[in-house]
Design a protein that fits this description.
The complex is a heterodimer.
Chain A lengths: L1 H7 L4 H24 L1 E7 L20 H4 L4 E3 L5 E3 L2 E6 L5 E6 L13 H7 L15 E8 L2 E6 L6 H6 L8 H7 L14 E7 L3 E6 L20 E7 L2 H10 L4 E2 L7 H5 L4 E6 L3 E6 L10 H10 L2 H7 L6 E2 L23 H10 L3 E2 L5 E3 L2 E2 L1 E7 L2 H16 L3 E7 L1 H9 L6 E2 L1 E4 L5 H6 L15 H12 L4 H17 L3 E6 L2 E6 L3 E2 L11 H5 L2 E2 L2
Parallel strand pairs in A: 1-10, 1-11, 18-19, 18-20
Antiparallel strand pairs in A: 2-3, 4-5, 5-7, 6-7, 8-9, 9-10, 11-23, 12-23, 13-21, 13-22, 14-22, 15-16, 16-17, 24-25
Chain B lengths: L1 H28 L5 H4 L6 H10 L6 H13 L13 H36 L4 H14 L3 H15 L12 H30 L2 H8 L4 H12 L1 H25 L5 H10 L3 H29 L1 H7 L1
Helix pairs in contact in B: 1-13, 5-6, 5-8, 5-11, 5-13, 6-8, 7-8, 7-11, 8-10, 8-11, 11-12, 11-13, 12-13, 13-14
The chains are: A alpha+beta, B mainly alpha.
Chain lengths: 535, 308
């Protein structure tokens, strides 16, 4: 009654003005609160142009993927495995069966339940895709009960837990996946993760809204409920400088990746916090073992010992990251090789090896043998960071009497050139991977050319490869076998290790508060779940 | 006029076919292929061979070209290999951004260029003329990539007037338009100046002076109008230049558009998308030239007569 009387009474101009101001104030306040719950993240260079959020078929996924999909298992920064959608697991002594208990009460964004039947549907979906290898050892999936599945294996796979923890192991909704077919991940992406996809425009941005039903994070998150940030826009900014300036001016609140050479500038920003997590990348110099003069192991060893890792680490990266002395990231157990195999700068040893190989210093400092100068090709890819490292390596090689001519290619062209197997000698390149099986990828004889840029074709290496890749029954056995394989590759000087970067990200403290410790091998949903807006 | 238009249109057919051959061959002759970007770590050579066959890359290049052209004449640009969407959808998503950016930059560089050119012609050989032309010539030699970053540093970071990047609102378009447009001013201004000075030497101008028409009116009403023919030709050619220039600028300003799409696809060797983007840029140049010819013919009956 009162309400109707109020509305029926004509408004005076003064009342109208007051009402308008109050209304505008309330609206502005609401808008401010709404905006305050939103954040803009940015992915840069390497993650730009990710075509899909279909984890089953994709070969490239960006950082937003972990916010959309959950996995059975999460890997922490120390490489340990933690339960997520799987609460526990056990394997038989022969490694031929794995039993996983699943988390109860989990639902996909479309309301469909997550249970054992989903896993039974999910595993065979990898067949024929580029990610088929991750579940190739699984013969079949048996549904034991609604929340228990058993994997019957074709052969023991001690790497199964790692495989299940990779970003391609996000579990999609079977209903949405089957309904959308090839369009899944492009027009819609439905997982069980803490955020739902509102929109995705390839190469531009992904808008994510909070999954308010979310209450099943892994034990790597402190927050056990829905995320604290209501909406996240993940922008794709290809140019690192532009991304940095967006963070500086508040256009972006968090940068997923920051190049190490931006660190000094970011550290001087009072409202930007820079965080580092253990790296997943190794920068190295492959040496073509089939190209003269590197067919001589002494010349290969000389080139490897000429690279001054500490100098590069300090001068180019200001001491951020670590100098690399092997082929694997230092967090892996297989990286802990016998020190006698580790490759570290030793100019005197390098010169002595070249002397022994018959390469004597010429009048201009460049070594010669049989009237021929020690002139080699040094390839690299375009990108400021690579070019700078390559120039330093060139100078370091020259210091021991090896003249290197640099050629710069784009990433696709250089790989095509490697496949010719004839032209290259040395190169500066990098990889990002957190498993020892990367040695197989880059040094197995069957992949000579690319990715086996070193063209290593050695019977002993092949034998150790087979043992490491297929004969290990347990995780510990696999570690031992891969360590031996790693040590042998090092002993052949098929490459020179250079640098192991850390993963660096930065955020605006004016807008965000992130936990002090980042859990997981990258900045993923575990950390974002514990993050909040500060104003 | 209609027959002139029809003849010009027919001439575009062989040009289009030539363009399609060049575009197709350029990207296929560059080392690398999209399959390398699809393959996951651990993939076998057999898997690669199977994918090559799936996308028809195992066939001779001429056969691949024939298949592409066959689809193209039916209006089908194919499907992106990496981006997993129809190329036409991707272009439709991005083209409006490039057109908006290119059009605004074209208008900006034309208005400023013609104005500067006209002022310089009116003050021929004076200090003002030399200084003006010197400044814009120096400005046009600055690389657009660097200019873009400087614009961001000054107007977005230091002054905070405009956003650093993106395409969220009209303000986000100001710096990219200035960056592309500034590079185009010099040519428009120089062509305008030369054309006006040429026109100023003609008999009708002498007669206008004799009739006592003011100098300002002679220049702005008569000479400028007469000098517009070469400027219009230049503008037609500049359409392609502007869209091409947008490629790097879209990258620096993280804007969606054909340029961003082209760079992303080129890095991944996504052939159908690269071909589609280059074709759009080529068509823009062709249409720009056609438009310039038609406008010229409409403005100057002598051209129509000469052609007919």
């Amino acid at each position: 009654m009162t309400t109707s009387m109020t509305f029926s009474r004509p408004l005076s101009l003064r009342r109208l003005a007051v009402s308008s101001i109050l209304g505008a104030g309330v609206a502005f306040g609401a808008l401010t609160v709404a905006l305050a719950q939103e954040a803009t993240f940015a992915v840069t260079a390497r993650e730009v142009g990710t075509p899909t959020y279909n984890p089953i078929t994709a070969t490239k996924l960006n950082s937003a993927n972990s916010l959309i999909y959950d996995r059975l298992i999460q890997q922490d920064a120390d490489q340990s495995f933690h339960p997520h959608l799987a609460t526990s697991w056990e394997t038989t002594p022969d490694g031929m069966q794995w039993t996983f208990k699943l988390k109860a009460g989990v639902k996909f964004h479309d309301g469909e339940p997550f249970n054992a039947k989903v896993i039974e549907w999910w595993v065979p979906k990898f067949k024929g895709t580029e990610n088929a290898d991750t579940v190739a050892a699984i013969e079949r999936v048996e549904v034991v009960d609604d929340l228990t599945v058993k994997f019957h294996m074709k052969n023991p796979d001690p790497n199964l837990l790692f495989n299940l923890s990779t970003s391609f192991m996000g579990i999609p909704s079977p209903k949405a996946y089957d309904a959308l077919g090839d369009k899944f991940g492009v027009t819609a992406s439905v997982g069980t993760g803490p955020y739902k996809v509102e929109s995705f425009t390839v190469g531009q941005q992904t808008v994510l809204v909070r999954n308010d039903d979310y209450k099943w994070p892994s034990d790597l998150s402190v927050n056990k409920g829905p995320a604290k940030i209501k909406k996240i826009t993940v922008r794709e900014i290809a140019d690192d400088s532009t991304a940095f300036l967006e963070l500086k001016t508040g256009g972006v609140d968090l940068l997923y990746t920051v190049p190490a050479d931006f660190l000094p500038r970011l550290k001087s920003e009072k409202t930007v916090k820079v965080m580092q997590i253990p790296g997943t990348e190794i920068v190295y110099m492959p040496i073509n073992t089939q190209a003269e003069p590197f067919t001589d192991i002494k010349v290969r060893a000389a080139a490897a010992y000429a690279v001054n890792q500490k100098d590069i680490w300090q001068t180019l990266y200001g001491g951020v990251g670590v100098p690399a002395n092997g082929f694997l990231i230092s967090g892996l157990a297989e990286a802990k090789v016998d020190p006698k195999f580790a490759i570290s700068y030793d100019a005197e040893r390098s010169k002595k090896l070249l002397d022994e190989a018959g390469w004597k210093p010429g009048a201009d400092g460049i070594r010669e043998k049989d009237g021929k100068k020690l002139q080699v090709k040094l390839w690299t890819t375009n990108g400021t960071e690579f070019k700078r490292i390559t120039e330093v390596v060139q100078a370091q090689l020259k210091a021991v009497g090896m003249a290197a001519d640099i050629t710069v290619f784009d990433a696709s062209t250089i790989n095509a050139q490697y496949k010719k197997k004839t032209d290259h000698q040395l190169a500066v390149r990098s990889y990002s991977w957190t498993n020892a099986d990367i040695i197989d990828w880059f040094f197995a004889a069957k992949r000579a050319g690319y990715p086996n840029v070193s063209l290593l074709n050695d019977p002993k290496a092949e034998e150790l490869n087979v043992i490491a890749m297929t004969k290990s029954r347990t995780w510990d056995e696999r570690v031992v076998n891969f360590r031996k394989y790693h040590e042998y590759i090092l002993s052949q000087y098929a490459f020179a290790p250079i640098y192991e970067p850390v993963n660096i990200f930065a955020y605006s403290t004016k807008k965000l508060k992130l936990p002090e410790t980042v859990r997981g091998v990258r900045l993923t949903s575990q950390t974002i779940l514990d993050s909040e807006i500060t104003n | 006029m209609i027959s002139y238009f029809a003849r010009r249109l027919l001439l575009l057919i062989p040009v289009f076919l030539g363009l399609s051959v060049v575009i197709f061959m350029i990207i296929h002759l560059v080392p690398g292929d999209p399959i390398d970007h699809i393959l996951q770590i651990g993939s076998s050579p057999e898997r690669k061979a199977a994918l090559m066959a799936k996308y028809g890359f195992d066939q001779p290049l001429l056969v691949q070209y024939g298949i592409w052209l066959g689809k193209l004449v039916q209006g089908d640009l194919g499907d992106a290999i990496i981006l997993k969407q129809p190329v036409s959808t991707l272009i439709a998503q991005n083209l409006p951004y490039s057109l908006a950016l290119g059009s605004a930059a074209l208008v900006f560089s034309t208005v400023i260029g013609v104005t500067i050119g006209a002022l310089a012609a009116m003050a021929k050989d004076s200090f003002f003329d030399r200084a003006l032309m010197g400044i814009i010539l120096a400005g046009s030699t600055v690389p657009s990539f660097w200019l873009g970053l400087m614009m961001i540093l000054i107007f977005a970071v230091e002054l905070g007037w405009f956003p650093v990047s993106g395409a969220k609102n009209w303000q986000a378009m100001v710096l990219p338009v200035l960056t592309i447009g500034l590079g185009g001013i010099a040519l428009v201004a120089r062509v305008t100046r030369v054309a006006m000075l040429d026109a100023a030497r003609q008999d009708f101008v002498l007669m206008l002076h004799a009739k006592g028409v003011s100098r300002r009116e002679i220049y702005l009403r008569h000479i400028l109008r007469h000098a517009m023919l070469p400027v219009v030709t230049l503008l037609g050619l500049k359409i392609g230049w502007i869209l091409g220039g947008a490629v790097t600028i879209e990258f620096v300003f993280a804007r969606p558009g054909l340029g961003s799409l082209l760079i992303t696809s080129l890095n991944q060797r996504d052939y159908p998308v690269v071909q589609g983007c280059l074709l759009m840029l080529g068509i823009a140049v062709m249409l720009g030239t056609l438009l310039a010819d038609i406008v010229q013919a409409a403005m100057d009956p002598r051209i129509r007569d000469r052609v007919s």
